[in-house]
Task: structure prediction
Amino acid sequence: MAGEPNDRLALIRMRRIATTALIVVFCGMIGFRFLEPLHPAWGYLRAFCEAATVGALADWFAVVALFRHPMGIPIPHTAILPRNRDRVATSLADFIDMNFLSSAGIADRLRKLDFASIAASWLSMNREAVTNRLADILSSWLTSPVSDTASAWLAARAKRLVAEADISGLASATLGPLFAEGRGQHLYGMLLRSAGDLIVTNRPTIQNKIREEIPLPVETLRSLPGLQRFGPALDQLRDQLASLVASRTIEKVQELLQEAGEDPEHPLRIAFDAKLTGFVEDLKSSPDMQARVAQLQQEFSESETLDAFSRQAWDSIQSGLLASVRDSNSSFHHQISKISDQIITALESDLSLRSTINDFVSAKVLDAVSSIRPHVRDYVISTISTWDAHEIADKLEMTVGRDLQFIRLNGTIIGGFIGVLIHAGFAALGV
Result:
C-alpha cells in the first residue's frame, strides 16, 4: 500500500521518542537519587523520574504485549493479537457486517440519495463525451471483423424470409381484391394505352423490323426465265410491299389497342381479365402453380444474386452509418444530443420518473448488498485467516502504533507527575 512506508516511518519516529523518554527518566531516577541528600528539592525530581519510569515501563509492556512477546519472552497473555488472529478476523468481519452492511443502515443511506438527479447532473456535464463515446464504440464495431456477423445475419435472414414467405398466398391476397368485380379495368386500360403510346413512339423501329422479317419470294422470281432483267424493279417492289404490310400491321395493332383501351367490354380486355383472374385463382388453389412458385422461391433464396444483394445492402448501411457517426455535425450526433436533452429534462422535472428511478436503483443496490453480505463477511474472515500472525501484528501496529507510542509517552509524563504528588504528600505528612 502507498501509505505503508509513511506509517512505518511515523511509527519508528514515535517509538524512538517514547523510548528516549524512558531512558531519560530512568537515568534521572538514578542521578537524582545521589543528589537528593544535598537538597530536598532533588527528591521531587527523583520521585518524578521514578514514577515516570514505572509508568513508561508499564505502558511499554502493555503496548508491546498487544503485538508480540515483550523482549521475546513468552509471558502469558502477551502477543495478544497474533495469538487471537481468528478471533480478530471474526470480530472484524462481524463489525463490518453489522455496522456497514446492515440492510436498515444502507436503506436509510440510500433514501437520502437522489440517483435521478445525480444521473441528470452527470449527463448534463458529459453530454458531448457520451455522444462521442457512443460514436467511437459504433465506429469501432462497424470497422471490426465482428461487424461481419451483421452481414452474415442479414444474408441468412434474407434467405430465410425469401424461402419461408408465402408468396402464393401473399400474391393472391393482394391481386385478388384488385381484379375482383372488374376493379382491374382501369389498370387494363392504362396498360393498353401505354402499349399503344409505346408503339407510336417507336413506330419507325418496329416498322423496319417487321419489314425485314416479311418473307417475299423475290429471289425465286428472279430465277424464272425472262425475269432476271427486272431484278431492280423486283427489289423496289419488295421494299414497297414490305413497308405497306408493316405499316398496315402497326396501324391495325394501334387500332386494336385503342379500341381495347376505351371499351371495357372489348374481347381483348375480357380475355386479359379472365387470364389474370385465372392466374390469381391458381396462386390461391392450384398445387402445381404453388409448387412452381415455391421452387422459384427456393432457387432465388439459394442464388448468388440474393447473397450479392445482401452484401451490397450491408455495405451501403455500413458506409452510411460510418459517415454519420464520424461526422460531428451529422444527424446521428444531433439526435443523440437531442435524446440526451430529453433525458435530462425528464430526470429533472418528472417527479414520478425520478421517484421510480430512485426506488428502482435503491432496491437493486439493497438487493445486491444483501446478496453479497455473507460473502463479504466470509471474505474478511478468510483473508485475515490466511495472513501470517506476525504480519497481522505488523499491519495493525503500523495503523495504530503511533497513537500507542503516544500512550507510552503520556504514561511517562503522567506517571512522573503522580510520583511528584505522592512525594509531596509524604513530605507534608513528614513521612
